[in-house]
Amino acid sequence: xxxxxxxxxxxxxxxxxxxxxxxxxxxxxxxxxxxxxxxxxxxxxxxxxxxxxxxxxxxxxxxxxxxxxxxxxxxxxxxxxxxxxxxxxxxxxxxxxxxxxxxxxxxxxxxxxxxxxxxxxxxxxxxxxxxxxxxxxxxxxxxxxxxxxxxxxxxxxxxxxxxxxxxxxxxxxxxxxxxxxxxxxxxxxxxxxxxxxxxxxxxxxxxxxxxxxxxxxxxxxxxxxxxxxxxxxxxxxxxxxxxxxxxxxxxxxxxxxxxxxxxxxxxxxxxxxxxxxxxxxxxxxxxxxxxxxxxxxxxxxxxxxxxxxxxxxxxxxxxxxxxxxxxxxxxxxxxxxxxxxxxxxxxxxxxxxxxxxxxxxxxxxxxxxxxxxxxxxxxxxxxxxxxxxxxxxx
Amino acid sequence: xxxxxxxxxxxxxxxxxxxxxxxxxxxxxxxxxxxxxxxxxxxxxxxxxxxxxxxxxxxxxxxxxxxxxxxxxxxxxxxxxxxxxxxxxxxxxxxxxxxxxxxxxxxxxxxxxxxxxxxxxxxxxxxxxxxxxxxxxxxxxxxxxxxxxxxxxxxxxxxxxxxxxxxxxxxxxxxxxxxxxxxxxxxxxxxxxxxxxxxxxxxxxxxxxxxxxxxxxxxxxxxxxxxxxxxxxxxxxxxxxxxxxxxxxxxxxxxxxxxxxxxxxxxxxxxxxxxxxxxxxxxxxxxxxxxxxxxxxxxxxxxxxxxxxxxxxxxxxxxxxxxxxxxxxxxxxxxxxxxxxxxxxxxxxxxxxxxxxxx
Lengths: 394, 359
Fold this sequence. Notes:
A: 19 strands, B: globular
């Protein structure tokens, strides 16, 4: 039974788990056999493999053959300075393409447990042919679980699970004539995907892109060589690098000074929340709200593991119910007391009849005291309490 | 004298909770050490199962040749057994949900058994595992057709129960499918007619697919081998049914396993719940192969204590659970499979008559 995808907004480096993915990829490039014939063959084979699908068998031969649980194989890992690496990934049969600027959910298995993170795609979308490759650039968070593994311990040949490309921070088709890109740090990644797309397929003669990119210094400026080389070569691109160690943080006022005609441009911005908030305020004040597209890496502060384990405010997203959950009270009780109709079974952690996807926040297992919760993780509401504010997809 | 073993001399509440805490610690230890090796185990079982199934189907496609028939039927039987016992039953319990793999998850798995996974999860995971062996609450105690305890009312039809218990074995999946519909709950007003009809539809839909695959499509594809192929599929399903019936009946019906009354479980604490699970279940002993083919249900006691721990870890904790039971004077029923099987049949025979034949 296909479970609908969780509606997860953009979350750079945030956990994400597609509970189930579309059975047949929707994209334009699905294989050599014509679509209808292939689908009919698979449906016929499905009668024989029922209750499994042919996909379940294909995925055993090679995970890349699975359309239901798309996967990709790492073909190369390029270090990008001391704390980042670019992964080149060959996607399998389930991959249904992306638009420049979108991000890719990547599933990595660590000690038997699958973790999901999202990374901006930096490779241009391609119009046809198999064997096309995707690239993502991962910045290492030394306190993180997944990024150090991807940056330091991922060898070519590794199989990663892929979610469908997502996000509305994209280059429109056709691209507008005048564009402004404002990026900081790893915020360059989705914009790099857009620039490579423009470079890949030469844009109309009148196209004009100004990129303002902020980095701590030349040594830790991601893709500096490529950006300067592209700016030298491409007549449509101008690059302004802003080094915070020498001139301080980039502000909305400086953006206005560096790009006097900002109100006449379609603008894309990606970077720290402070910068994005300032830009948003400036554009709103100028009545140019719709000309600014922003991409936030994090929606809000993370609750650090172990902190605030004594209950919290619980939101049941689908029911629209919100309630305060005291420490030690199962989420199921809290929801029912507040009038939400929730699935339940044994009410003591045995039957898994009450599983609900966690959208945000963390929970505490009332049996063991362990605080856990990845976004998208299915939670047994009858034996878990709130560990800080949280949202359930119920 | 009653025909189920007497209740054990009650542990003091403090001792009961101490016992429960010791079991909680075992659980926490396994939870903390779940990892790569367990993930590799379940994926290996899946690969072996699908390999055997594919091999069995191929061999049965040319099963006019007797060796191909034997090999194909054997492979398919083992594949179906693995699929139901070590994979379906355990994955549907959520034993592998911790991996976060949507392909091996209690919410997405569907098994090669007639009853739809959702219906199974309700009657088995919820009703049976919560109310294990409570007369009047655990429908698995005799599956509403067998009288397995003196507290259950006797009707003349029970005189025939040895016969229909035996006839049930080869068609066990049909028995379970009908049982999961809970027609008795509709009669009692615990379930709406509408829900009942919806479940019948879901069952019919799955049954059509299941039967079409085994009894129509694969035989047709086998061409000249159609008849032996059909026979092989019927045999594989039948043997799997007999085996599942054996394993499941040996889990709760051997003579030394206790039943409980509804009064006994009022305000049951976690420690008391553990005690009931142990006294309401029976293990059987065996090597690795028997363990895998029975879905590790030879460790029924451990499974009932911790239904959501990965099945491959039950063997590791069984000696510890047993030592703990000895320490607290809690009976721990175990023995060879044949002895549990014989004991189960004695119980079926004994309760077929309204009086206790041992008196």
